[in-house]
Amino acid sequence: MPSGSATAVGLLLTTTLTELEAVAEGGVAAARDTETLVHLADRSQGLGLACCAAAVNRLMDQLRRARKSPDESARGPAAEALLHAYYVTLLASQQESIAAAVPALPD
74: how many CB neighbours lie within 10 A of its CB? Predict the structure, then answer.
């Protein structure tokens, strides 16, 4: 499980990363309940993490397309969207961890 700060934003980002890892482990073609990711994207958007929300929403669109298509080549864009969503969310999580830690540094 990715580690982040214990703030509400940090926990949201950590949970999102965990869900993205679960998608990666199961594969983009696997049937999976995506309701949790939709909820996490909505919460991210509500907290001003528009880049994270957009990346997860793009992933959801690509996963739907890949699952409906009999053509295996539809999985490529879904895999790319998964990597993109993970990298964007990881970067946000790392930034949030740094921002949470900086006030504790001595002057």
Answer: 17
Judged against a pLDDT cut of 70, whether residue 36 lies above it is answered with yes
How would DSSP label each residue in the chain?
Answer: -----SSHHHHHHHHHHHHHHHHHHH-TTS----HHHHHHHHHHHHTT-HHHHHHHHHHHHHHHHHHH-S-GGGHHHHHHHHHHHHHHHHHHHHHHHHHHHGGGS--
Q: Does the CA dihedral 26-79-12-4 come out positive or negative?
A: positive
Q: Is residue 76 pLDDT above 50, yes or no?
A: yes
* 96 CB neighbour count, 10 Å cutoff: 20
Token pair recorded at residue 107:
């002057």
Distance CA(54)–CA(9), nearest Å, equals 16
Q: Which residue has the higher pLDDT, 30 or 82?
A: 82
pLDDT on residue 1: 47
